[in-house]
Amino acid sequence: MRLTVLGGGGFRLPLVYGALLGDHAEGRVTDVVLHDVDSARLTAIARVLADQAAGVADAPRVTVTTDLDEAIRGADFVFSAIRVGGLEGRAADERVALAEGVLGQETVGAGGIAYGLRTVPVAVDIARRVARLAPDAWVINFTNPAGLVTEAMARHLGDRVIGICDSPVGLGRRVARVLGGDPGTAFIDYVGLNHLGWLRGLRIDGRDQLPRLLADPALLGSIEEGRLFGAQWLRSLGSIPNEYLHYYYFNRETVRAYREAERTRGAFLRDQQAGFYAEMEKPGAPALATWDRTRAEREATYMAHNREAAGAGERAFEDLESGGYEKVALALMRAIAHDSRATLILNVRNGTTLSVLEADAVIEVPCLVDANGAHPVAVAPLPYHATALVCAVKGVEREVLAAAESGSRTTAVKAFALHPLVDSVTVARRLVDGYVDVHPGLAYLR
Fold this sequence. Notes:
By secondary structure, the protein is α/β, with parallel strands linked by helices. Helix content is 51%, strand content 15%. The chain has 20 helices and 13 strands. It has helices spanning 13-21, 39-53, 68-72, 86-99, 109-133, 146-157, 167-178, 210-214, 217-220, 224-229, 231-237, 246-249, 251-260, 265-280, 287-300, 304-310, 325-338, 384-406, 409-418, 425-438, and strands spanning 2-6, 31-35, 61-65, 77-80, 138-141, 161-163, 187-193, 196-204, 207-208, 240-241, 342-349, 362-370, 373-376. Strands 3-2-1-4-5-6 form a six-stranded parallel β-sheet, sandwiched between helices. The mean pLDDT is 94.
């Protein structure tokens, strides 16, 4: 089976390859094709993968290419993990937004909109190429903003594109462990959009154990979300929100922490990864050890500004491991390729799952996966406060898609102005002007 990875020079790719190395099932991935527009990054990551594969007799064969059509042609699965504009683009997204006093995070608020406006045209081009060159392939989208990008690609690929994210996986794992359950068998009642969802229940042996967690402040304080949001607020909600909702519930505090920080998250990752890729240009550098050391630092500093704003302290040791998106991707591929049914939280088209959204709106919910793809399970309606937020953000995503399709600057301004974390139409106009000035990829807005 052939897997193509778009954005194959990306820093997190060894996580995916590591998961493939541990898969010895019949019909597994035997060929991995890495595509990237940056040949130096491809070479660096290929070195890390070679170190990982050392001593593994049946390791998937790795090839690299900068030719997009060559990479796609003949693929059984395509992982889309691109970053349009690179980490310099992410850092610029943060700077422009913070200068206006609003959040510039890569998937939330003004930064997420800017990233989406840059990425959607490229993702749509990829979707059209896959439809033409590999019509039977399944596309698994890692590219952020994951829900928005998946929805854009689904307009050309239908249900053959599925988005994944490790945030719900990590949340469910933490809650299951603290309740004494097995994260692999507990059922997670999770509903929302990508980076905008709530864990509303966690069933262990058929019984919902979440009320027990919500009733115990000490137990709540032992998980990342309890320290981030506070036990009192979680009990008020009656659910455990995705960590990205901290940007909404504690927006003023988070923006202040971002503005006071020496470097934004994007600038930190830009500088950190620049050091990694520069080190990889040295022939004698230990590739896997250098990558692993860099990854550990990346994980330890994840959402550091939010934890600072909340007074949550350092990340707990048990939260430093990867959220597991590579394991979700492998489980998704296996279920489709071998019709081995699995239940996974995924980004898929809504259908009739949430009645407040259109059928083609991409949502993030538990899905049953088989050879025919991912099918969202029936869920209870969201409470009004969550429904309002989901509908508002989905409305913004629709304006982003419309702006990317039409090239209308007016529509782009509308997308920014309607976002709950942008408090003025005047600010929205300045944001669009600022982003167009710094991003060549937004020159299409007129």
